[in-house]
Amino acid sequence: MVDKKTIDPAVKEMMEKAKADGIITAFDRAESTKACPIGHVGSCCKNCHMGPCRLVGKTTVGVCGATIDTVAARNLARAIAAGAASHSDHGRGMAFTLLAAANGEAPDYKIKDANKLMRVAEYLEVPTKDRSNEEIAADVARAALADFGSLKGEVSYVKRAPEKRKELWSKLGVTPRGVDREVVETMHRTHVGNDQDAEHIMMHAARTSLGDGWGGSMLSTDISDILFGTPSPVASRSNFGVLAEDEVNVVVHGHEPTLSELIVVAANSPDVLDYAKSKGAKGINIVGICCTANEVLMRQGVPLLGNFLSQELAIATGVIEAMVVDIQCIMQGIVDAAETTHTKIITTSPKAKITGATHIEFHEDKALETAKLILKTAIDNYPNRKNVQIPDYTDRIIAGFSHEYIAYMQGGVYRESFRPLNDAISSGRIRGAAGVVGCNNPRITHDDPHLEVVKELIKNDVLVVTTGCNAIACAKQGLLTPEVMEYAGAGLREVCEAIGIPPVLHMGSCVDNSRILTVLAQCVNEGGLGEDISDLPVAGFAPEWMSEKALSIGCYFVTSGVRTWMGGTSPIEGSEMLTKLVGEDWNNVFGATWHFEPDWQKTVEEALAHIDAKRKALNLEEYVPGKYAKSNTYFPADYTSDEEFAKYSRTRAK
Question: Which of 6, 216, 285, 592 lies at a CB distance of 3.0 to 4.6 Å from 247, suitable for a disulfide?
């Protein structure tokens, strides 16, 4: 049964230990808790107390008369609004931190990338001449915060989209006016007795998602770069083998770099290190789970422990002194898991407490002081270890490809450009590009679709960019290293070797999907691949999605012009009309469609056909598989064997 739940050998090992120790995990709960067949396909309405209304069988409308199409659209729109609110509220928090740092109210934070500050100031129309970085940063923060309300006609970063896409959004009336305004209006429209036209509801859902992708999330990424540095390639390690038996292990888990960055700083301070040694430890080992892991990986080189479904199993190792969490994707089950070990669960955000956890509230004005308190709490727990087991699996990784670095690596400091990438696509050396992102879902074999989609794409000369839990899945199986080049198609390999990059580029956390939007816009603006994002030979994937944030991300990619496939079952399957709307009709509206498909092979086949069709529409040179191959060694015979690939990855790492 374990083999059907995950393909990660470290996770398999810890699942066996968790079972022996009596730890119940998400894998167990997914098996015992069956998904509601009505709500799962969007056919249940609980937006008022006349219900919930289950539209199944002969029941085709709710008590108020709402049809299945209206109900499914409302449910999807509300999920998109929740996802947009989550990532965008993260962005608001980053703006407040920048403002506090600029005003001297958060002395532990400094402006680390002044060049990025100037670039963002230009986007936000903040004057920079004869002004200090702090003065500029304060106004940048205020301008960013203004984008969350409705003080202006549209969010500032819409101007970064290609002209043709901006014109389309304006014509359709979906240009986001303010992040918060669109989220609130979604909740208003989907209240009982309000908007009752499925297509109309979904057009506003599109607007809400765009406020996330081209608003809150993009602002969050930019402000994080200003405060903590714009990522560039960094080497590190991944998987459970990054845990240390003779050091204090602290896991940072969640999504906010404001906390994790200071945890890393505090862990390197002499007083904290001396305190750890006084308890018998050789040092402090910081590792990460989920998107916090991606944040501190790409800026500080902090090792990746695992992705979403690893969090309870990490506790089962018995060597984690503290799991320090902030917001998003944190399972309440980690508290129960910790009861069987010595691990302390420490919540830190004023927005998120967990019953039974230790709460040490984190505020930016006392950031380093609080970080040291958290670490000392973990250090005090070091002598309390019980049953210890660390799976011996690690892999080397190269991460941190920001959109700025991708431009730099193609031309250097003075000639940065997307021309080489566009030319490689035009010539057929690179067939196209794909973003593969998203969560894990315990109802899908853990990491399997993530890795299979990525391997099949690079085999077919498609350059892959990755964020979030997909990036961590790739890291754990050796896909984020130059050595994986032998699994890439010959044309893609030739380009990557010339530039010196892997064929799978780690671009950050899930909020950093906005970096992918920027890359797409820059490819269009470079010229030669059409006039809009929808003209590009690109595709989007979320093979194991589960969260509302993933729905917001999927929606803003589609409405930006990227055809997107999401794995697993469809949340709108109950409505044929809505499925057709986003899966077919939106092609005539946004130039892209949105698909929910459990068969990863089918998604890749459809995506490759889509990429080829886009190439043909652009009159590009026809893509010919293997055209640039010098020998068959570019396509190893054992490529299709998952066992051989995993063996290759683990052996190379050791």
Answer: 285
CA distance 568 to 442: 11
Domain range 429-434+441-653, its CATH number among 3.30.1360.70, 3.40.50.2030, 3.40.50.2300, 2.30.29.30: 3.40.50.2030
| pLDDT (tens digit per residue) in 312-371 | 999 999 999 999 999 999 999 999 999 999 999 999 999 999 999 999 999 999 999 999
- Across the chain, how many H-helices and E-strands are there? 27, 16
Q: Give the class (CATH, top level) of 68-228.
A: mainly alpha
With beta carbons less than 8 A apart as the criterion, state whether 621 and 426 touch. yes
CB 242 within 8 A of CB 303: yes
Contacts of 628 (CB under 8 A, 6+ apart): 429, 490, 491, 494
Grouping H, G, I as helix, E, B as strand and the rest as coil, residue 233 is coil
Of 325, 50, 317, the C-alpha closest to 192 is 50
Under a CB-based contact definition with an 8 Å cutoff, are residues 316 and 7 in contact? no
Compute the Cα dihedral for 521, 522, 523, 527 and give only its sign: positive
Rounded Cα gap, residues 133 and 442, in angstroms: 46
Residue 510 Cα distances to 80, 119, 490, 514, 638, angstroms: 15, 22, 30, 9, 32
Question: CA 204, CA 225: separation in Å to the nearest integer?
Answer: 30
Instruction: Give the Cα-Cα-Cα angle 441, 445, 448 (nearest 5 degrees).
Output: 105
Q: What type of residue sits at position 77? A: A
pLDDT 10s digits, 19-55: 999 999 999 999 999 999 999 999 999 999 999 999 9
**Which tens digit of pLDDT belongs to each residue from 116-154?**
999 999 999 999 999 999 999 999 999 999 999 876 689
> 240-384 — its CATH code?
3.40.50.2030
